[in-house]
Amino acid sequence: MAFSPGQFITAQRINRLQPKTYWSQCSGAVTGGAGTAADIAGTSIPITVETDGATAAMDWSVAVYATGAMGTNACVVRAFWDVNGAPTFAVFDAQATNYRSTVSANWVTPIGTAGTYTFKLNGSVFTNSTLQIYTTLKVQIMEIA
Prior knowledge:
Layout: H1 11-16, E1 20-25, E2 30-31, E3 34-39, E4 45-49, E5 54-66, E6 75-80, E7 85-92, E8 100-111, E9 115-126, E10 129-131, E11 136-142
């Protein structure tokens, strides 16, 4: 939204012109199961969006350690917020025991309505694999003035 000639400019409106960045780090690990999705501890970020039509840009990375071969399965990590999950996944596929890797992904989504939302990571981990610590999530909110 542009400023009009003679329009009063408020500190609140100026504040919304700059992006706001939030960051979290995982404080634990998600262990293998039957591919059941679980929230990744420590990555939940509650964020208040002040205007309709904002945009959220998310970047995340996950250090993965496979304590055994996963065969044809893979670990999948995705970002979620209160409205929906990211269509972009970070995927790790370990074909042998003791594989280690760091995978990452990013996603941008519009936020239609102002409000408070919770952004977090969610992972599906298969047997013989563990999502280790050093999992991070960065969310940047860009609002319109």
